[in-house]
């Protein structure tokens, strides 16, 4: 039996492990964490990502702990006025073949942990991977595998030494009880756009909480960490003068995380004969397209399908996986960079032109959301 080592037990790593096990591979998952704590806030799942979860038999469990988003709205930063709105809910599902969901990362992670037929091996910080498939860990231990999958995030050891690209932007993230957010019970995928800043919010945990991500320019804050903390008052101050909906939501968050936003330049090659990359390790992207999680899910499905092909050697399968995924993830990665500037325009003609372009938003993003990784693999 082919033995595969997955480095990283996040969403991408665990989904890859589940998909590989379903294809008959033996999989071990390694993670540097000492314990799998409830960290992070919300993530969004689109039709393209849900197609993978449904195929793996996880769709119902994910839906049970998610909020199905009924609309998308764009608001003016100061007045709160809606300048673009479109239904999601049933409309989105009919158009793109699956729901658009908001889910707490910890809830999603628990679904994946329950589905993975084993326990991630913790406190195993990968220090190096050899060309022969040997993993060396910081504690001096080693392991071997036929294939090593780097799902170890932006600063991937498996990927190698190229430097992350700092966006000169950071974000505040948190959860606010829905009854502490003015109008929160009506939120779907909700944007507040303004000069040099923007905020995205949506419900999670069945609408009990509103998850928010508030983006600000900040070349001084360079810490990129799920566990870094800030003060809600600091987030409120950063959005002084914005609509009360925004400042009240920020002020009533139980706690606020803050981290700097990085990505990396697209890679020429992801794979060697026995190693490859997945998710943020392969194509870390800024969050302004809402696709980081969904692209990791697509990666996981593609990797498992390619490795399972009996007509390909391992090296050929890894190259096939890379070729299927590279152009699409590169396009989304670079598009996410461009969206930040688009979302943070000052009032006036540039913002008015953007608002006019939003009228065609469903068609503009259709190529992302309607994508079927399984059909792509067949073609």
TrEMBL record:
Q: Which Gene3D superfamilies does the annotation name? A: FAD/NAD(P)-binding domain
One function term, GO molecular function aspect: monooxygenase activity
Does the keyword section mention Nucleus? no
Database matches in InterPro entries: FAD-bd, FAD-dep_Monooxygenase_BioMet, FAD/NAD-bd_sf
Give the record's keywords alphabetically. Answer: FAD, Flavoprotein, Monooxygenase, Oxidoreductase
Q: Which Pfam families match?
A: FAD_binding_3
Name all FAD-binding domain ranges.
Answer: 2-332
Please indicate if the UniProt record lists Oxidoreductase as a keyword.
yes
Cofactor(s) recorded in Swiss-Prot or TrEMBL: FAD
Give the protein's recorded name: FAD-dependent monooxygenase
Q: Which organism is it from?
A: Paractinoplanes ovalisporus
């Amino acid at each position: 039996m082919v033995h595969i080592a997955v480095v990283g037990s996040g969403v991408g790593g665990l989904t890859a492990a589940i998909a590989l096990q379903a294809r008959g591979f033996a999989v071990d998952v390694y993670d540097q964490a000492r314990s799998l704590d409830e960290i992070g806030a919300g993530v969004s799942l689109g039709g393209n990502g849900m197609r993978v979860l449904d195929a793996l038999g996880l769709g119902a469990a994910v839906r049970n702990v998610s909020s199905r988003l009924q609309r998308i709205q764009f608001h003016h930063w100061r007045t709160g006025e809606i300048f673009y709105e479109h239904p999601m809910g049933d409309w989105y599902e009919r158009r793109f073949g699956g729901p658009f969901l908001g889910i707490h990362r910890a809830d999603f992670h628990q679904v994946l942990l329950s589905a993975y037929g084993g326990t991630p091996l913790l406190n195993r910080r990968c220090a190096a991977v050899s060309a022969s498939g040997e993993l060396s860990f910081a504690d001096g231990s080693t392991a071997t595998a036929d294939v090593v999958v780097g799902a170890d995030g932006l600063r991937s050891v498996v990927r190698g030494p190229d430097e992350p690209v700092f966006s000169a932007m950071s974000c505040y993230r948190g959860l606010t009880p829905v009854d502490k957010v003015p109008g929160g019970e009506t939120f779907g995928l909700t944007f507040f756009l303004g000069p040099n800043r923007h905020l995205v919010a949506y419900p999670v945990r069945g609408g009990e909480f509103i998850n928010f991500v508030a983006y600000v320019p900040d070349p001084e804050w360079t810490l990129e960490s799920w566990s870094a903390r800030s003060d809600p008052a600091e987030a409120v101050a950063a959005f002084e003068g914005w609509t009360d909906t925004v400042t009240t939501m920020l002020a009533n968050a139980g706690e606020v995380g803050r981290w700097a936003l990085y990505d990396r330049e697209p890679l020429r090659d992801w794979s060697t004969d026995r190693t490859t990359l997945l998710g943020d390790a392969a194509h870390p992207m800024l969050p302004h397209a809402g696709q980081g999680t969904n692209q990791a899910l697509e990666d996981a499905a593609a990797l498992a399908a390619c490795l399972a092909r009996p007509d390909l050697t391992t090296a050929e399968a890894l190259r096939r996986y890379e070729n299927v995924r590279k152009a699409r993830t590169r396009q989304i990665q670079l598009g996410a960079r461009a969206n930040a500037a688009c979302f943070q325009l000052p009032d006036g003609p540039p913002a008015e032109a953007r608002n006019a372009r939003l009228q065609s938003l469903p068609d503009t993003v259709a190529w992302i959301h309607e994508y079927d990784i399984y059909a792509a693999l067949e073609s």
